[in-house]
Structures are given as C-alpha cells and as structure tokens.
Amino acid sequence: MMARPWPVTENEFLLEDALDIAMRYFDLPPDSAEYASVEKFAADAIMDEWKLGVRHKIVLANKAIAVIEDRHPLANELRRVRKLGPGEAQLP
Predict the structure, then answer these.
(1) Which of 26, 27, 47, 90 has a 20 to 30 A CA-CA distance from 83?
(2) Is-contact 16 3, C-beta < 8 A?
(3) What is the CA angle 72-50-35, rounded to 5?
(4) What pLDDT was estimated at residue 82?
(5) Would you say 28 and 81 are in contact if contact means Cβ atoms under 8 Å apart?
(6) Are 1 and 23 in contact (CB under 8 A)?
(7) What span, in angstroms and rounded, lies between the C-alpha atoms of 68 and 91?
(8) Long-range CB contact pairs, 7-14, < 8 A, 24+
(9) To 10 degrees, the CA torsion angle through 37, 40, 41, 44?
(10) CA–CA separation, 2 vs 74, rounded Å?
(11) Is 80 helix (H, G, I), strand (E, B) or coil?
C-alpha cells in the first residue's frame, strides 16, 4: 500500500493505520485491479468520519469497512479474511 496524500497533515499516521486496518480486513491482493477502488472508497469514508471529529483509528477503520460492505459496487465479491481457530483447516 502506498501512502496516500491525506488532506490533513496532523495525525497522518493515524489515518494510514486506519486505512491499513480496513484494507487488511478484506482478502484483496494489493496488485489487483480492484484494490485502488476499494482503498479510495475506504479513505473517503475515513476522511468523512475525521471531519466529524472521530480520532480513534479502530473507529475510523470500522466505519470504512461498514461503508465498503454497504455501498461499494464490489461489496458482494469482496472476501473477508477469516481467522482460523485451533483445529480448523482452511478450505481451498
């Protein structure tokens, strides 16, 4: 993931962390054609919350994930990363 040019310079690392958390939630390779579209969607959602005064990276990331799942054109195709529990095998 490339560092985005955020429109604010204060807490730029917090914004990057929130975006990174949101993007890791989805199983989407960074070199895929859809990655940039989903990343921009997430970044826009994060900035919308930032403008409302939200400053916690987990809350920002959660909002981005919710917006992508609710409104992104590829929402139904995006696969979320599922953490396997003890004794569970990953299916092909």
Answers:
(1) 47
(2) yes
(3) 30
(4) 53
(5) no
(6) yes
(7) 25
(8) 7/47, 8/50, 11/55, 14/55, 14/57, 14/60
(9) -170
(10) 21
(11) strand
Cβ atoms within 10 Å of 49's Cβ, excluding its own: 19
Residues 6+ apart with CB under 8 A from 54: 60, 63
For tokens 């989805």, what's the residue?
A: 26
Q: Which amino acid is at 1?
A: M
Joined tokens for residue 92: 């092909």
pLDDT digits (tens, 9 = 90+) for 3-60: 677 888 788 999 999 999 999 998 788 888 889 999 999 999 999 999 999 999 999 9
Residue listed under structure tokens 């985005």? 4
CA 80 to the chain's CA centroid = 11
- Total-model pTM: 0.79
